[in-house]
Design brief:
The protein has 295 residues and is mainly alpha-helical. The chain contains nine helices and four strands, in the order ααβαβββαααααα. Strands 1-2-4-3 form a four-stranded mixed β-sheet, sandwiched between helices. A hairpin with a 7-residue loop joins strand 3 and strand 4. The protein is globular and about 55 Å long.
Length: 295
C-alpha cells in the first residue's frame, strides 16, 4: 500500500474515533461535548508526555552506552543518519521474550529498545531490519498517532461508563437503551478502531523500514523468528495489553495463541505476520528489479 494511502487511512480511523467520542459526549448535549473534549485533551496530554516513561518502566529497560554495545550504536547511528533523524536514546530491556519497540513524543525525544531475548536469536542483518522498522516508527511519528488513538480510546471507555451510571440530559436525548448500548458497544467500537490504527502503522513501518535498510528479506526473516518465539516465551506481567501496540510483534502472543481468526482478528494489535512477510517479499522483489540483488 502506498505511504500516502496508508496515512490517509490512519487519519480516517483517527477521525472515526473522534466522531465516536463526540457521539458519547452528546448524551449531555452541547455542554457534554465540551466536557468530553476536555477529558480527551487531558488523556492525550498524559499519553503525550508520559507514555515513553511508562513503556520504559514496565519493560524493565535501562539505557546502555556505546562502550557497552558498540554494534547496537553503530547500526542505529547509520540508519538514523540515512533517515536524517536525531540519534535516539538506546535501551535494553531485561525481557527474555525477543522483541523491540520505539517510544517518545517526537524524533527529538525518541527512544529505541531491544530486549535481551532478541539479541540472542537474530543475526546482525535481521537486527538491522528490526531497528530500521523501529526508526521508521519514529520518522513517521507513529508514536504520537498511536498515543492519540490510545488516549481517545481510553477516553471513550471512560465516558461511556460515566454516561451509563450518571445518564444524559434531555438536550442530549439519552435514553436507558441508548446509554446501555453506549456502555457496551462504544468501548468495543473504540478498541476495534484503535487496533485498526495500529495495524495500519505496522504495515507502514514495515514498508518504510524495508526501504531504509534496503534489506526487506532480513526484516521478514526476523519477523518469522520473533513471531515463533513470542508464542513460547511470555512477556513479563508488568507489560499490559494496552502497551502491546508498541512492540514489533505482539508480546501477548503466548496468551493469545488461541482464537486467532474470525471476530478476534478485529482486535489484533498487529497484522498477521504471514501478511507482513508477504508484503516484505514483494518489496524485496521490487528492489532487486530496480537495484539488483540485495546483499
Amino acid at each position: 500500500m502506498a505511504p500516502g494511502i496508508n496515512r490517509l487511512k490512519t487519519w480516517i480511523l483517527i477521525a472515526a474515533l473522534g466522531g465516536l467520542f463526540v457521539l458519547i459526549g452528546s448524551f449531555w448535549g452541547t455542554n457534554g461535548m465540551v466536557i468530553a473534549l476536555i477529558i480527551a485533551l487531558v488523556f492525550n496530554f498524559a499519553m503525550y508526555w508520559f507514555s515513553d516513561k511508562i513503556a520504559i518502566a514496565t519493560t524493565r529497560s535501562h539505557p546502555v552506552t556505546e562502550q557497552e554495545m558498540p554494534d547496537y550504536y553503530r547500526i542505529v547511528r547509520g540508519l538514523a543518519a540515512e533517515q536524517r533523524l536525531p540519534m535516539p536514546t538506546l535501551y535494553v530491556s531485561d525481557m527474555m521474550q525477543p522483541n523491540a519497540f520505539a517510544t517518545g513524543r517526537n524524533p527529538e525525544h525518541a527512544a529505541v529498545a531491544v530486549t535481551r531475548g532478541i539479541l540472542g536469536i537474530l543475526d546482525e542483518r535481521e537486527l538491522r531490519g528490526v531497528l530500521a522498522h523501529e526508526l521508521s516508527h519514529v520518522a513517521n511519528r507513529d508514536i504520537l498517532i498511536s498515543s492519540v488513538a490510545a488516549a481517545i480510546g481510553m477516553s471513550i471507555t471512560f465516558l461511556a461508563r460515566f454516561a451509563f451510571f450518571f445518564g444524559g440530559d434531555d438536550e442530549g436525548g439519552g435514553s436507558v437503551v441508548g446509554l446501555l448500548l453506549a456502555w457496551i458497544l462504544a468501548p468495543i467500537a473504540a478498541a476495534m478502531i484503535q487496533m485498526a490504527v495500529t495495524r495500519s502503522r505496522e504495515y507502514q513501518a514495515d514498508e518504510s523500514g524495508a526501504f531504509l535498510s534496503r534489506d526487506p528479506d532480513a526484516l521478514a526473516s526476523a519477523l518469522l523468528k520473533l513471531e515463533d518465539a513470542s508464542m513460547k516465551v511470555p512477556a513479563p506481567a508488568s507489560v499490559s495489553p494496552a502497551e502491546a501496540h508498541l512492540f514489533i510483534v505482539n508480546p501477548m502472543n503466548a496468551l493469545n495463541a488461541r482464537g486467532r481468526g474470525g471476530v478476534s482478528s478485529l482486535f489484533r494489535t498487529h497484522p498477521p505476520t504471514e501478511a507482513r512477510v508477504e508484503r516484505l517479499r514483494a518489496i524485496a522483489s521490487e528492489l532487486r528489479g530496480e537495484r539488483g540483488p540485495i546483499g
